Every structure is written in structure tokens, then in C-alpha cells.
Structure to design on (637 residues):
């Protein structure tokens, strides 16, 4: 990932860290699912791809994804001139970064507690 | 690692990783205090016990319930309802609390018989209340009283009553948070799914993790009902016992305080497939986003937007009036749990005050992740601080106001630092758009109170000026406000009423009622 991309990933990660709560569910397996579902749906929205809304859970991930996509567009004007291929790469990088901050690199010792 | 060692705690090496300062470039992989661990002997922690967390945070806001502690009277007396979690049934649960008053003889011979008699006496004393929560304490847990068996016996003998048993003794966890956990799990195991409340709308939610402090839950529920959403249960502020037994029928769990009640939402997802949506009910922008998210789940965007537009137009100018005068002030945000992350960023964004420290006595690392992620560089985050650490932090950070509970608040007052009671509130509710302005007003009044001019004088040595009066709040706060006509005319101090909650009770909700008339289920 080049420096521009890295910087952009960081800007998006900062937005999530400040304005969202969904990435901080209490266990590692919850966080994996949340990150995967919400960031995939956000990528689909940013790339004008269809979003699966068939279950209540899908709708719930989707509302957070819509908020995120709108927030990204508002705070990061450079998104508007990126092509879809690059947006996908960017979102892939973002997913890796959020997984690192909230799961793999997290100092939270409760993430692996097997019960709620 | 950006750990911070307090001078007063140098002699307690175990405290070394319980405080961090968020430095430049730090993120959560390098900057996170430990949390929710056993209290370190010698630190004089100020935590509550697990019984307190179960009963006084989560159980007791339930309004149509007799709350009975099974234990020495001190457990209930010392922690008697001091939070202002009001209810619309004349505050029954705030006015009355019961204890079995265990003595030494019960410890020796057992207290089950006495417990049974107490339960029956309570129902006789309040014949209109048919629901009860019984809370285990250290003493009754240690002697092994089988509270569930006694409750079952009474329910068999009195078929019109229903009893919930919460086995969360004081020692059941490092802090009150252990009790939050236990009561969440006990409620879903024992009670959810045992009652079917009437479904009156196509859009049904549980509103979870708000305790109706000075009416917070009622303010939020009003927004939902204005959109046409049925709030099936409120966990547990102003909540009704039987409604909470029907939580399994909602379409969505809308979660405010994940610290105290994410467990039940996680279980409701696992057992009943109900999704969990975490929201922020404080601050104009986060609240607007949260209302819109709930609305989008049901396709009610237009309804939400109308509320957001109305409320913002009405209250934003008043928030702006305070924000101009609060800009640059420093605060320590030292609440119990969730406000440390609900407020850490938005109070800075919308009121202009700088959060120089966040702390929690019972929060988990998950709470600190949210708090540290949201607060600005330089903020000091402390897990389970003791009084000396609090004093040292105040000396180091020189805050203009400390937002905390009564006990640490009184300490800060002695340091001549004003404090705002954000556990029980000064003049809440603080949720909702108007509520956020009320918080700004209370913060402004605390920081600019004329009393600070007097309290700083020592009459034994200082010269007391007799030729001039006090400066009022506004004389002090407006020194830097230029009266050049750039202030929009509608910007003004708070103009709302003293009581903004009572009028919501009995309010009609046309959108909800029209669905009922159509027989929607
Ligand atoms: S720690 Fe035990 S004895 Fe003390 S108040 Fe809590 S339940 Fe009662």
C-alpha cells in the first residue's frame, strides 16, 4: 500500500473510531462479524453495488453502513474522484486496519472470553 | 507504552498499568489501561459491589416491582436508591425498598423461613403490586439460602404474583459491573419469553441500557413513538416487569449503555435472532444519526428527519449560546461507565470544552477502548482511580469543572473545582436535543457561578472588597464575547420549562395509534 493510500485508510479509520460504536462489540468473534458485515456493505454502497437486505441482521448492518458511507463522503472529498477499483482496495485496507485496531492488535484482554 | 504513574501510587506497583495518557500517534494497540480486574489491596478503591450493580443500577429502575434485598439491612440502607431514576407510576420503586434484615441468628440457623414471610408481608403491604425482584447479598449467598426455591413456593401459593431472583452477591465480581452481568443473564434465563405483551405496531423495539435518570428514557421513547415505533420494553428505566418479560418479541434492540446491558442484547441475538444496534443518545449530531439509523431499519426516514429538523431548529441556537461561552474550558469526564465514551468527543465538538481526562471505576477495557478512541490527544484515562489519584489528576490537569458522581464531586468541590453530578444529574434530563442544552446550561452555571469569587477569599487574611458587588455569571462569561451584532438574535440562554418530562406522560401518538386502528401486528 502506498503512502497516499495508507493516509486515506487512516482518515477513514479515524472517522470510525470517533463516530461509531459497532466495532467495539465485546468479543473477538462479534468484532470479526461486525467488521466484515458493515465494511462490506459500506464498500458496496460506495461502489453502487446491490446490498443484501434480506434478514433483520442485514438491515441492522446496513444502517450502520449507510451512516458510514455518508460520513466518509462528507469528510473525505477525495472519495468522489476515486474509481471503484481503487475504492475496493481502499476498503480492503480499511478492513485490515480496523481488524488490527480492534482484534489482532487489541490490548483488550476480554476479547477471547468464551461467554458473554 | 504511555502508562502514567501517579506519585501517590508509586508504592503500589500493581497500579502501574491502570492509567494512560493518549500521546501523539497513539492508538488502541499501544494506549489502553487495564480494566475490570480485582481491586488491588491498599488502593482504597471507590467501587460499588456486584449486589449494588445488580440491584441499584439495573434492577431497581423497574417501576411496578417490590425490590427486596435478602440480607443485612445495611446492604440496602447504605446503597438506598440515590439515583434519580424516576417513573411514571408516582416513583413507586424509588419510594419503597425492602430488606429482610438478616441477623446473626439467621446466619447460624438459615433465613429461608424468614425470607418467605418477608415476601408475603411485602405483597400484603402493597396489594396493588404483584411483581417482585429479590436480590441476594453476601450473607445470604454464603449461608446458601435457596432463594429460587422459596420464590417458587410463594408463587405456587400465590398464583397472581411473579417473582424474579437475582443471585448477584456483593462478592460476585470485581465491581458493580459483575452484578450488571449477572442480572442481565438471570433476567433472560428466568423471565424473557414468559409473557406476551400486546404488539401494537409494525415497528417494535426494545430500548436497552437507559435508566431514566431524571427522565432520559422517557425523552428517547417519545422520539421513537413520534415516528410510530412501539417501544415494547425499556431495560430498565421506567420499565415494566411484564413488558420486559416480552423482550423476545421485538424486531430490534436499540442499545445505549453497552457496559451495563450488552449481555442481554447479545443473548437476545443468539437465542431469538434480534439484531443489536448501538446508539448514542447524547449530543445533536450523534443523536440525530442514531434516530435516523433506527428509522432506516424500519423505513421511517421521513419521520425521523422531521423530528431532527424540528428539534435542531428549536434548540441549536440555545446550545450555540452556551458553546460560545464554554469554548476552551477544560473538564474531567469522570462518570460511572458509558458517558465516558458517549460524551468524550461530542461534548468537545458541540460545546467546545476540552476533555482532559476520562475515568471509570468499574468499566471494562472495552469501555476504555471507546473512550480513548474518542477523546483528544493528551487526555488522561484512569481505571478505578482512588481519591488520592483523583486529587493528583486535578492538580496536574487544572480542570474548570469535573463531571462525576456525588462522592468524588464533593472532593473536587473542596479543591475549589466545580463539579456537575452526571450520575443523578443536576437539572436533567440530559438526553435529547433539549436535554443536551440543559447539560450545557448546568455546565455553564457550574463554571461561572459567582460563588467562586467568594469561596476563594480567606476572611482571616484577604482584603474583602466592600465597594463593589459580585460579578454575575454573564459578566464573567461574556468578557470575550464581542457584542458587535454578529450573534444571531435567536441565540439565547435556555428557555425551556423546569419539568419537561411529566407532560410526555399520557401524550397521544397519532402515528402509533393509526397503526393500532388498522389492526397492525
Ligand atoms: S459487599 Fe456484600 S455485604 Fe457489602 S453491601 Fe455489597 S452485598 Fe452487602
Amino acid at each position: 500500500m502506498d503512502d497516499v493510500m495508507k493516509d486515506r485508510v487512516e482518515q477513514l479509520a479515524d472517522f470510525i473510531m470517533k463516530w461509531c460504536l459497532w466495532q467495539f462489540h465485546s468479543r473477538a468473534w462479534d468484532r470479526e462479524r461486525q467488521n466484515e458485515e458493515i465494511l462490506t456493505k459500506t464498500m458496496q454502497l460506495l461502489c453502487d453495488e446491490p446490498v443484501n437486505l434480506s434478514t433483520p441482521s442485514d438491515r441492522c448492518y446496513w444502517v450502520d453502513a449507510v451512516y458510514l458511507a455518508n460520513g466518509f463522503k462528507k469528510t473525505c472529498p477525495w472519495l468522489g474522484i476515486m474509481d471503484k477499483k481503487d475504492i475496493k482496495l481502499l476498503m480492503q485496507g480499511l478492513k485490515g486496519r480496523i481488524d488490527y485496531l480492534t482484534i489482532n492488535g487489541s490490548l483488550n484482554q476480554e476479547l477471547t472470553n468464551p461467554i458473554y | 507504552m504511555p502508562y502514567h504513574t501517579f506519585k501517590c501510587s508509586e508504592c503500589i506497583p500493581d497500579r502501574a498499568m491502570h492509567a494512560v495518557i493518549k500521546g501523539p500517534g497513539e492508538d488502541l494497540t499501544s494506549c489502553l489501561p487495564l480494566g475490570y480486574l480485582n481491586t488491588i489491596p491498599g488502593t482504597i478503591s471507590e467501587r460499588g459491589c456486584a449486589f449494588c450493580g445488580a440491584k441499584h443500577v439495573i434492577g431497581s429502575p423497574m417501576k411496578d416491582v417490590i425490590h427486596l434485598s435478602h440480607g443485612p439491612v445495611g446492604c440496602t440502607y447504605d446503597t438506598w436508591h440515590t439515583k434519580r431514576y424516576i417513573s411514571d407510576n408516582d416513583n413507586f420503586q424509588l419510594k419503597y425498598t425492602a430488606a429482610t434484615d438478616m441477623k446473626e441468628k439467621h446466619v447460624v440457623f438459615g433465613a429461608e423461613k424468614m425470607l418467605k414471610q418477608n415476601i408475603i408481608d411485602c405483597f400484603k403491604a402493597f396489594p396493588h403490586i404483584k411483581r417482585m425482584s429479590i436480590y441476594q447479598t453476601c450473607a445470604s449467598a454464603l449461608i446458601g439460602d435457596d432463594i429460587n426455591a422459596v420464590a417458587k413456593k410463594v408463587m405456587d401459593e400465590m398464583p397472581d404474583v411473579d417473582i424474579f431472583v437475582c443471585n448477584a452477591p456483593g462478592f460476585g465480581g470485581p465491581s458493580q459491573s459483575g452484578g450488571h452481568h449477572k442480572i442481565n443473564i438471570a433476567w433472560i434465563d428466568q423471565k424473557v419469553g414468559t409473557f406476551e405483551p400486546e404488539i401494537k405496531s409494525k415497528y417494535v423495539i426494545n430500548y436497552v441500557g437507559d435508566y431514566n435518570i431524571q427522565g432520559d428514557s422517557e425523552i428517547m421513547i417519545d422520539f421513537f413513538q413520534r415516528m410510530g415505533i412501539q417501544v415494547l420494553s425499556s431495560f430498565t428505566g421506567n420499565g415494566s416487569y411484564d413488558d420486559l418479560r416480552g423482550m423476545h418479541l421485538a424486531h430490534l434492540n436499540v442499545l445505549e449503555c453497552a457496559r451495563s446491558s450488552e449481555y442481554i442484547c447479545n443473548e437476545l441475538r443468539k437465542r431469538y435472532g434480534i439484531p443489536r444496534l448501538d446508539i448514542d443518545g447524547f449530543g445533536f449530531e450523534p443523536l440525530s444519526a442514531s434516530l435516523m439509523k433506527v428509522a432506516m431499519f424500519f423505513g421511517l426516514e421521513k419521520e425521523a428527519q422531521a423530528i431532527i429538523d424540528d428539534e435542531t431548529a428549536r434548540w441549536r441556537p440555545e446550545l450555540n449560546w452556551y458553546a460560545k461561552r464554554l469554548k476552551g474550558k477544560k473538564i474531567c469526564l469522570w462518570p460511572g461507565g458509558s458517558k465516558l465514551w458517549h460524551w468524550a468527543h461530542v461534548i468537545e465538538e458541540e460545546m467546545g470544552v476540552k476533555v482532559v481526562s476520562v475515568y471509570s471505576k468499574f468499566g471494562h477495557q472495552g469501555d476504555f477502548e471507546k473512550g480513548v478512541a474518542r477523546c483528544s490527544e493528551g487526555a488522561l484515562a484512569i481505571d478505578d482511580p482512588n481519591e488520592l489519584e483523583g486529587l493528583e489528576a486535578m492538580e496536574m490537569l487544572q480542570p474548570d469543572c469535573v463531571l462525576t458522581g456525588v462522592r468524588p464531586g464533593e472532593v473536587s468541590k473542596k479543591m475549589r473545582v466545580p463539579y456537575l453530578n452526571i450520575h443523578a444529574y443536576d437539572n436533567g434530563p440530559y438526553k435529547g436535543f433539549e436535554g443536551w442544552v440543559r447539560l450545557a446550561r448546568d455546565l455553564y452555571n457550574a463554571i461561572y457561578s459567582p460563588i467562586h469569587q467568594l469561596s476563594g477569599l480567606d476572611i482571616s487574611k484577604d482584603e474583602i472588597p466592600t465597594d463593589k458587588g459580585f460579578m454575575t455569571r454573564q459578566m464573567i462569561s461574556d468578557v470575550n464575547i464581542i457584542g458587535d451584532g454578529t450573534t444571531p438574535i435567536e441565540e439565547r440562554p435556555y428557555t425551556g420549562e423546569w419539568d419537561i418530562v411529566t407532560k410526555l406522560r399520557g401524550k397521544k401518538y397519532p402515528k402509533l395509534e393509526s397503526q393500532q386502528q388498522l389492526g397492525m401486528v
User: Anything to note?
Assistant: The helical segments of chain A are 3-19, 28-46, 56-75, 84-104. Chain A has one domain: 3-103.
